[in-house]
Each structure stands twice: as structure tokens, then as C-alpha cells.
Amino acid sequence: MEQYIDRGVGIYLRLMTREDTDLIVAWRNSDDVRKNFIYQEPFTRQGHEDWIRNMVEKGKVVQDIICDLASDRPLGSVYIRDIDRQHNKAEYGIFIGEAHARGRGIGTAAAKLMLRYCFAEEKLHRIYLRALAGNERAIRSYEKAGFRKEACLKDDVRIDGKYCDIIWMAAISPI
Questions:
Q1: Rounded distance, CA 144 to CA 107, Å?
Q2: Beta strand 5-6 with 126-132: parallel, antiparallel or unpaired?
Q3: CA 171 → CA 61, 91, 138, 155, distances in Å?
Q4: How large a percentage of the chain has pLDDT more than 70?
Q5: DSSP state of 166
């Protein structure tokens, strides 16, 4: 992943390791991160270890850590999941765990790097994502990175007893 660097924004991607577990659990349980996920249940160390064992190690997920280029400090995570080799597609996800890193273009830059990785290294054709319709900041970031809106799924999920719309977006390989 060394070649996945954005010097303009000052980030790079590296593969997640087991040593990142405590940080990922803390990030995913923060209100600012959790509120933007469809799955909002508390995140546990055991759950993340199960994710690594059942998903990452079995090739169903590629998860990277977004790191600050100057300090090497982790800022968040980006991943593809449910990798489907028959149809050459996967679902994209991201979260910026460090509050000071939000609103600086890091999410857009990380998405562009991950798309480049998906198309060049994984040889995937389509990367899709689901976003809560109210998360307009993320949707704008995804559009800047190259994702396009494909659908609005009305009342698709129920969060805290309220039905919410989901925006379905995708990026298609230019290769």
C-alpha cells in the first residue's frame, strides 16, 4: 500500500493490523462516527477480532488505516467489504476517527486512493456504498471522489425507531 499516498492532503493508506483494534473500537464507538453508520450498535473488541478472523483473513474485506503523512498517526479507516469476485464488486466504507482530521478533505482523498487500489490491484469493476440520506457532507465527499448517486431507497433502515432513507452510490472502473 506504500504507493497509496496523497501528498496534497498529507495522508497515506496502510493495511490495518490487529494492533489497530483498540483504536478502531474507540473510533467506531464515538458518537460522531457511530451516528453516520447504518449499524449503530456498540462496537466491541471481540466483534472486531471476529471481523478480522472471519472477514479480513478470509479475503472478504480489505481494511486500511488512513495515516497522517507527517506524523504517521492514524486518522481513520477505509475498507471494502463483501468482495464479490464473480461480479467484480465490493462495498466501500470509511470513517474519520480523529475529530481534528474531519472537514479537511481527508475523507475524499482516502476514497480516491481506495478506489485507485480497488481498480488497479483488486481488479474490481464496481465499488458501491450506502449512505444515510441526511449525511450530506459525506455524500458530497463521495461525489468528489468519483461516486455517483444511483438510487434513494425510501425508509430502507430503521434507526432509533425511525425509518431512514439510504442513498446508494457507486463508482465504476475507468480501466
A1: 10
A2: unpaired
A3: 18, 10, 15, 24
A4: 99
A5: E
